[in-house]
Design a protein that fits this description.
Helix content: 25-40%
Number of helices: 7
CATH class of the largest domain: Mainly Beta
Strand content: 25-35%
Strand order of the largest sheet: 7-8-9-11-10-12
Radius of gyration: 21 Å
Shape: globular
CATH architecture of the largest domain: Distorted Sandwich
CATH topology of the largest domain: Cation-dependent Mannose-6-phosphate Receptor, Chain A
Largest sheet: 6 strands, mixed
Structural class: alpha+beta
Number of domains: 2
Length: about 250
């Protein structure tokens, strides 16, 4: 039992470490958005017409067969399991560029889940979640906005506001490869600076500090690379209206 638990835990860590995406020269770490329970994945349609379930860096946990392997799944409000429909496979993910207006309002990128085909009706669905830099959204918040049907596929649109999309222009936590580079540089410098030995700074200390402060290092390097200079949001948080701020009741904290 202990061995199985350890393997599950290590598997979860592996998923989290692997969950980063590069877009326009920036690396976005989404591991903090990964959910482990069905309730944490729930996003209510504010009209109470539908229930939606979204996960990042892994499939949803609805326990419904139609949702197996899906990054997003939905159903009519309070519907039985037989009425659930897939909204995009977690292994069919892509990164798309937001519209010019979305970018102006602070959007970083759009995460697409594709190939959600209903096994009963044959209807094809996909999910588009646009990630926004929102400095005041220290707890990420998400909401469903609308659905578009072009006769071939139904696309469900969501917006997610998250302060971590702003860090270092989206660099988030410093990748492990960059930590290794920082450790190498610091250790090389310490070899030339006697003061390092005097205060007891060695490679193990540098490694521990690098891992613990991955996010801060990522922020620093992102800012040194240019930070957010390419973005011009309409206000500090990246929203063009008060009603669209993530404090609005239409948003679900995740």
């Amino acid at each position: 039992m202990a061995k199985t638990t350890a393997l599950v835990f290590l598997g979860a860590i592996a998923v989290a470490l692997a969950c980063s995406y590069e877009f326009q020269g920036r690396t976005y770490d989404l591991s903090h958005l990964h959910k482990l329970t069905r309730s944490a994945e729930h996003v209510a349609d504010q009209t109470l017409d539908h229930d939606f379930y979204l996960n990042f860096c892994g499939a949803v946990h609805t326990g419904v067969a139609a949702c197996n392997g899906m990054g997003a799944c939905g159903s009519p409000y309070n519907a039985p399991d037989t009425d659930y429909y897939p909204m995009g496979r977690v292994d069919q993910v892509s990164i798309e560029e937001p519209s010019d207006q979305e970018i102006t309002n602070g959007a970083r990128f759009t995460l697409m889940y594709r190939d959600g085909e209903d096994p009963t009706s044959g209807i094809r669905r996909q999910t588009a979640t646009t990630m926004y830099c929102s400095s005041d959204a220290t707890t990420p918040k998400i909401r469903y906005t609308n659905m578009m049907d072009n006769g071939y596929v139904k696309t469900y649109f969501f917006t997610l506001h998250d302060a971590k999309m702003c860090v270092g222009g989206g660099s988030g936590k410093l990748p492990l490869g960059e930590i290794a580079f920082v450790v190498f540089v610091v250790v090389m410098l310490c070899g030339c600076l006697p003061v390092c030995c005097a205060v007891g700074v060695g490679a193990p200390t540098v490694i521990v500090v690098g891992v613990v402060f991955r996010e801060q290092l990522g922020d620093l390097i992102g800012r040194l690379k240019g930070g957010d200079s390419s973005f011009s949001p309409l206000d500090e948080e990246g929203f063009n209206t008060e009603a669209d701020k993530p404090g609005d009741s239409a948003y679900t904290a995740i």
